[in-house]
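RECORD TYPE: inverse folding
INPUT: structure tokens
STRUCTURE:
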């Protein structure tokens, strides 16, 4: 099967590719059977383990190659598994803009007298940036404890600094100069701003022209119900997608690529664990049982870990907060929509801090109090400035390393950037959890969170 038809169009040239696809389908049938016996959370955990197991077995059959991209059939399996995993993510992304757009309009037009959109916005930003600042401190401490980059002789890679856009231009780019284009590009912040203006207009006009705008208000309410129903249908496919996503990550990156930077991987996940504990402390301060909270939001956490997409996870995040954590629908939508694009604790907090410490040690850059103070400010501010830009983590690192005056040493990060998907799993999960604890805290401040089951 060496013809162009099979190698480039069908992308099946080896019996191992066929067997891998059949095994995945077989695991889908097992998952379908299990779905009738176990609850959704347990099913998600089982699906994650099945995906890891499948990925490792495929790598074992291939002989654990150093570079999986050089093995043709692994590339084919990666492509076919991506059809399922990333196809599911595409369906979720399909829902993001309509859910955010309608939810924001709905929350603002339904604000009661005395409730202030300015307070909602300011409290949200304070929580998102505040937790990111804490994440930076955690990253600095762990980076130094692990002595990342100390004594390492690293061959400079060919990776170059990403082109950095001034923060002023980036912030201006978030404004909805073309709302339709903003929706097409999934510029969530721009969509939120546009929806906020519409919601405020409805609220203002409702006093004098309630009869005139009532059809539009009813349309918003109806469309919200419909899009939520669609999201529930898509979410039911999640366990199957998780198997493919998890296996896809291992098949595509390989196991050997992890070993070269194992110290950085361990440091990152230790930092994530510590920050997650801090999140749970914040949850406890809000009067919520941390264990109950984790059970309630396990679905978006697992999806974020396997999919590596904060924006793609958004519909599931909102559903978990409103249905399980009993957060007000409007606040859940508003806070998590902003949280998926700014103040990301993992990608724009811990990760740039760890990278800055690593590169500083590699390059011999002295690290004193002023270095750390400047790093805290640069990372926190850049977590807002890079909002809505694809490749957030890499861009965050580029901005921070440049801002710290170490731009010339960016190629030293090549080995770490090569295994980014492995790092991105934990980072994205922390991003999503950061936006969720922010939503819970903001909802609590407005007394808009119900009682959850113990």
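DESIGNED SEQUENCE:
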């Amino acid at each position: 099967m060496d013809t162009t038809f099979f190698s480039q169009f069908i992308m099946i040239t080896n019996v191992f590719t066929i067997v891998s696809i059949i095994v995945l389908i077989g695991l889908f049938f097992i998952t379908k059977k299990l779905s009738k016996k176990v609850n959704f959370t347990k099913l998600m955990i089982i699906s994650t383990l099945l995906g890891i197991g499948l990925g490792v077995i495929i790598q074992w059959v291939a002989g654990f190659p150093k570079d999986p991209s050089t093995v043709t059939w692994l590339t084919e399996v990666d492509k076919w598994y991506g059809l399922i995993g990333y196809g599911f993510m595409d369906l979720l992304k399909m829902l993001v803009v309509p859910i955010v757009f309608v939810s924001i309009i709905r929350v603002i037009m339904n604000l009661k007298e005395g409730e202030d959109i300015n307070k909602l916005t300011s409290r949200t930003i304070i929580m998102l940036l505040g937790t990111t600042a804490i994440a930076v401190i955690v990253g600095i401490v762990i980076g130094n404890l692990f002595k990342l980059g100390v004594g390492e002789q690293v061959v400079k890679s060919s990776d170059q600094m990403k082109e950095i856009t001034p923060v002023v231009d980036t912030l201006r780019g978030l404004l909805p100069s073309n709302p339709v284009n903003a929706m097409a590009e999934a510029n969530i912040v721009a969509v939120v701003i546009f929806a906020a203006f519409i919601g405020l207009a409805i609220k203002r006009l409702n006093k004098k022209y309630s009869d005139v705008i009532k059809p539009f208000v009813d349309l918003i309410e109806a469309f919200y119900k419909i899009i939520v129903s669609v999201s529930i249908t898509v979410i039911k496919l999640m366990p199957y997608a998780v198997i493919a996503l998890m296996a896809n990550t291992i098949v595509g990156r390989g196991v050997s690529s992890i070993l070269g930077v194992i110290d950085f991987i361990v440091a990152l996940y230790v930092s994530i664990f510590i920050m997650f504990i801090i999140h749970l402390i914040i949850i406890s301060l809000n009067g919520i049982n941390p264990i109950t909270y984790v059970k309630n939001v396990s679905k978006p956490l697992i999806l974020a870990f396997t999919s590596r997409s904060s924006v793609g996870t958004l519909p599931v995040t909102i559903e978990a907060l409103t249905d399980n954590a009993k957060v007000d629908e409007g606040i859940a939508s508003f806070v998590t929509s902003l949280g998926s694009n700014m103040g990301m604790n993992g990608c724009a907090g811990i990760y740039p801090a760890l990278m800055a410490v690593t590169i500083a040690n590699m390059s011999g850059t002295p690290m004193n109090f002023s270095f750390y103070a400047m790093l805290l400010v640069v990372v926190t501010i850049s977590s807002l400035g890079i909002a809505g830009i694809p490749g957030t983590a890499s861009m965050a690192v580029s901005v921070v390393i440049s801002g710290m005056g170490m731009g010339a040493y960016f190629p030293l990060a090549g080995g770490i950037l090569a295994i980014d998907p492995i790092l991105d799993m934990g980072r994205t999960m922390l991003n999503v959890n950061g936006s969720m604890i922010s939503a819970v805290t903001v909802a609590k401040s407005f007394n808009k969170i119900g009682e959850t089951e113990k």
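NOTES: Residues 153-162 have pLDDT under 50 and may be disordered.
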